[in-house]
Amino acid sequence: MKYPIIIDSGANFHMFRDREFFISMLPATGKVILGDGRTSLPILGVGTVQCVIGSQILTIENVRYIPTLSESIYSLFIHVQQPNHGIHSSYDQGLFLKFPTFQTKAIIGRDDLYLDAIPTIDHLLPTSTNVVDSQSASVCRHILDFQQELVNETDHIDNLLVRLRQYYDDVRTKRQLQMEMPAGFRRSSEFQKSSLISSQSATSG
Predict the structure, then answer these.
(1) Which of 109, 142, 160, 167 sits 20 to 30 Å CA-CA off 188?
(2) What is the distance between the alpha carbons of residues 13 and 35, in angstroms, rounded to a whole number?
(3) At a CB cut-off of 8 Å and minimum separation 6, what does 75 contact?
(4) CA nearest 70: which of 14, 29, 17, 108?
(5) What's the pTM value of the predicted model, to 2 decimals?
(6) pLDDT tens by residue, 66-99
(7) What is the distance between the alpha carbons of residues 185 and 94, in angstroms, rounded to a whole number?
(8) Rg, Å, the chain Cα set
(9) How many CA atoms within 13 Å lie on the side-chain side of 69?
């Protein structure tokens, strides 16, 4: 099992070693003493675990985060105290853990019973098939192409805005110069301009 989780009837708490299971966590200090009575391991946090069992999503509150555990531990002692939780077993079918909306069969190991659960993040990962890989690659290419088009359009619009800003700055400067020009100079300039137009018209006539 990639994420071995022992079902332990003697554990006082749920204790997980893999950070991938936790969807929220608060820092915590302290130590937990294992079943041999001698080994103590540091607790680095307490939080909420979310995992997938079969097709069901299970959320477990108040779980100790102990990364130095050799295997995660699901407390059967805590399990049977929760509302709508329980166990049942038979000689021919084995041990089942009951949850409010489903039940799951415990996996029999060499020395222990295990809960077959994986983190939700692993459940959401695509299966490694050529079809999924090609589809994912195609989607990624479309996204990259779309992003590049946006970048190109944005650059084009930025260039237009810069040119417009320069144009309006030039217009504002010219208007300001005309307003600041002395009135007599403006009249003489207009007279010279009209005289030049009249002389050009007479020459062409």
Answers:
(1) 167
(2) 12
(3) 8, 11, 12, 13, 14, 15
(4) 17
(5) 0.59
(6) 999 999 999 999 999 999 999 998 888 889 999 9
(7) 108
(8) 38
(9) 25
